[in-house]
Specification:
Blueprint lengths: L4 E2 L2 E4 L5 H11 L4 E5 L14 E2 L4 H5 L6 H11 L7 H22 L3 E2 L14 E4 L2 E4 L2 E4 L2 H13 L3 E4 L2 E7 L5 E8 L2 E6 L2 E4 L8 H7 L17 H8 L9 E8 L9 H5 L5 E3 L30 E6 H10 L13 H11 L3 E4 L2 H8 L3 H17 L20 E14 L9 E3 L5 E7 L20 H24 L2
Helix pairs in contact: 1-5, 1-13, 3-4, 4-13, 11-12
């Protein structure tokens, strides 16, 4: 196929990593940089994000927050049990993160802030950096990362970069030595060949591809909730077709918990995550220390072993009143008022996500559990509360609260799926690696399709917001490396 155009660097994917890579390649001095995005506008799933993880930033210094790159690295490697994680990759991203926040502000004019509000668990230090500019999103004034993606796109184009939206990259081309020579793109109903020496793949994960999901996650079920834009792993396939190694594992980023997504019932999700509630399954049996939900990313794991991966959070009426009067024990950022009774009433009137009843037998009927099983579960739990000791799962006694005041309530919930990580093998400079672990010349990978920075579970104590943090920092690294390679390969 004859080339229809050429570029020094081609970036494929316009989400959290791609625009960053494109601007970073310009910083290095790459001549023509082309950014290709399949959808009508840039953003991908990054438009749903609030902020990104970083350490050793100006914002943290100003707030006297001491979270060092060394501490984060050691803690993260221990948390992942040194499994699946390439320490050089994780170290490179952690070390770059602080300067990247300043770089984003320089390129976009948008400053960032940290706050004790912007974390998801009590043990999280303020490392989640969110844009300091408010925007309206569906009637809610929120701090959202979407504005950063838009601003990066504007900066890129103002410096001579070209963006093709509504264009789909379908294949890479390489020469007899395996080096990248170009990209085949479907655009305006025809195929074009873009000649280039350097490509950055930033096409996102594969949570929209049922075949890949079943391959990598034994528990996958198409009913799982939480996905936004269903990425289909196109970049992963393109990489594999030119000999890039795909790891035999991937990570599913999941959170606790998913419940009704109706706007007038937004309190149901946070309600299921409170440590003083009681979790039961479809059999009416308790299945976990409910305080595991304090850890947002791993709290969903107990659900994977339950029938239908479904749980039910039990409340008595005194607990509902306490939430409405005093707020959540475990808030979720960004903070919104807890209108739990109002939202429960709305859901109970529909009957799909919640029920309110005068007896546990009625609640059991709604769940589909044997009445005697649920009644015994509640009686046993109330006995634990009276003794101040959870004999089943040793829940912290601070969260033991008896269910005694009718009416009684149950809220249905499941794990919330966010994104996938991997399985494309890279090194710390984001080179795509072949089966022999050597770089494919001219090919770089960034964002969630890259492996080597997460273990079996996402995040850990210090790394909340690392999905976007990795996308942005790996995008910078990949763009810089691609720009240098293009400069060196220029005749």
């Amino acid at each position: 196929m004859q080339p229809s155009t050429s570029a020094d660097v081609v970036v494929i994917g316009g989400g959290g990593a791609g625009p960053v890579a494109a601007v970073a390649a310009q910083d290095i001095g790459a001549g023509r940089v082309l950014l290709i995005e399949e959808r009508a506008k840039l953003g991908g799933n990054a438009v749903f994000a609030t902020g990104l993880w970083a350490c050793e930033t100006r914002q943290q210094r100003d707030a006297i927050v001491d979270v060092s790159a060394d501490e984060v690295f050691r803690t993260a490697m221990a948390w992942h049990h040194h499994e699946r994680v390439d320490p050089r990759i994780l170290r490179a991203v952690i070390n770059k993160s602080g300067q990247t926040i300043a770089w984003l502000t320089e390129k976009t004019g948008i400053d960032f802030l940290i706050s004790v509000e912007y974390k998801m668990s009590p043990d999280h230090a303020p490392t989640w950096h969110v844009p300091a500019r408010l925007e309206d999103h569906g009637g809610h004034t929120l701090l959202k990362f979407s504005q950063v993606v838009r601003a990066l796109g504007e900066t890129f184009q103002s410096r001579g970069g070209e963006v093709w939206t509504g264009a789909k990259a379908v294949a890479l081309r390489t020469d007899e030595n395996g080096a990248v020579t170009g990209v085949v793109v479907e655009r305006d109903g025809r195929e074009e060949f873009v000649e280039t020496r350097a490509v950055v793949l930033a096409t996102g994960g594969f949570h929209g591809d049922s075949e890949l999901m079943r391959k990598y996650f034994y528990f996958y079920d198409e009913s799982l909730a939480g996905f936004r834009i269903p990425m289909t792993g196109d970049g992963i396939r393109m990489a594999a077709e030119v000999g890039v190694r795909l790891e035999p594992h991937a990570t599913l980023i999941k959170e606790t918990c998913s419940s009704s997504e109706r706007p007038n019932e937004y309190s149901l999700g946070p309600a299921t995550r409170q440590p003083d509630t009681v979790w039961v399954n479809r059999l009416g049996r308790r299945f976990s220390d409910e305080a595991v939900a304090i850890h947002l990313q791993t709290g969903a794991n107990p659900l994977l072993r339950q029938p239908g991966m479904t749980g039910f959070a039990l409340y008595d009426d005194a607990m509902i009143r306490d939430v409405d009067d005093n707020g959540w024990l475990l808030p979720r950022a960004p903070l919104r008022p807890a209108h739990l009774r109002k939202h429960l009433d709305s859901a109970a009137a529909v009957g799909d996500w919640a029920v309110t009843a005068n007896s546990w037998a009625e609640v059991a009927a709604w769940i589909g559990a044997p009445a005697e099983a649920l009644e015994k579960t509640v009686a046993d739990y109330n006995e634990h509360c009276a003794r101040g000791y959870d004999a089943e799962f040793v829940k912290d006694r601070r969260y033991l609260r008896a269910l005694v005041e009718p009416p009684f309530h149950a809220i249905r919930f499941g794990p919330m799926m966010i994104d996938t990580v991997g399985p494309v093998r890279v090194d710390e400079e984001m080179h795509a690696l072949g089966e022999d672990f050597s770089p494919v010349p001219g090919l770089y990978v960034s964002g969630s399709m890259a492996s080597g920075w997460q273990g079996a579970d996402y995040c850990g104590q210090h790394l909340f917001g690392m999905a976007l943090g990795f996308a942005v920092n790996s995008g910078r690294i990949a763009g810089e490396q691609a720009g240098r390679y293009a400069e060196e390969a220029r005749p």
